[in-house]
Amino acid sequence: MKKLLTTKEIRKKYAPDHVIENIKSTYEENLDKLKFILINKNSPLLNYDKDKQLSFLEVKNSKKHNLVDEITSVLKDTVFFMNQSKKERTIITQKMRGFYSELIKNYLERISIFIDDPEIFMLKESQRYPTKHMGLDLIFNILKLIKKDLEHELKYRNQLPRSGYLTGLQVSMGEFFMKLKKITMSQKDQITLVQMLFDGFDVDWEAGDRENIKLSLQNPAIEYFQKTEQDLQRIPSYFFSRLLNDDLLSNLIEQATILKKRSRRF
Length: 266
Fold this sequence. Notes:
Blueprint: H1 7-14, H2 16-38, H3 56-62, H4 66-73, H5 76-82, H6 86-115, H7 134-158, H8 167-172, H9 174-182, H10 187-200, H11 207-211, H12 213-238, H13 246-263
Helix pairs in contact: 1-6, 2-5, 2-10, 6-7, 9-12, 12-13
């Protein structure tokens, strides 16, 4: 049997914490620059307000804060990727996807090894009078539910398209585009805003993609976002069991949600 790496060893192999820390620091260092672009007099964002019930004066005073703050909050990963070269963006995306894929495969192998031996610790002396280990029975039920969710996540990862220099931007900008859609921003204004952001951060990308932002960036971004939202909604269906109490099931759902959100940042 091959030796399975521990989670600590996998983290050491890919160093994901270094990327996460860089994302955080890059965002903090560029937050003022990001806000300046969004509230620039030519920014189309200033023509939209989130709350139609506010008075004109309130809208004018709050627009540069509430809406801009809401938009900047969903661009943390995007700011990081906008500051990387095409080559760096590709490498980082491949590295982080590799980390989460290997981690999930490792989890599945460990779970499978355990549950493939249903008699572990049972010490059966006869077929007629088996000794039942109630604690392990509970563990088996939990692991089977976790395995089902992990298998679904691994299937999703195996079907992902090959990572490219725009992938990090596509994955990170889905919620941004959905928020623009929510405030009924026109397609033309959305494209203009993206161009302003990319020009402001001097983003490294091909002329062809720059000329067709909808196909190269917007559509894939929304597709990534909507797929993840749909899969997050399905998580409770993988953790349905009459053998486990509600508190335990709720915690399993919470942990599965955290893993899915983290792994799909890239």
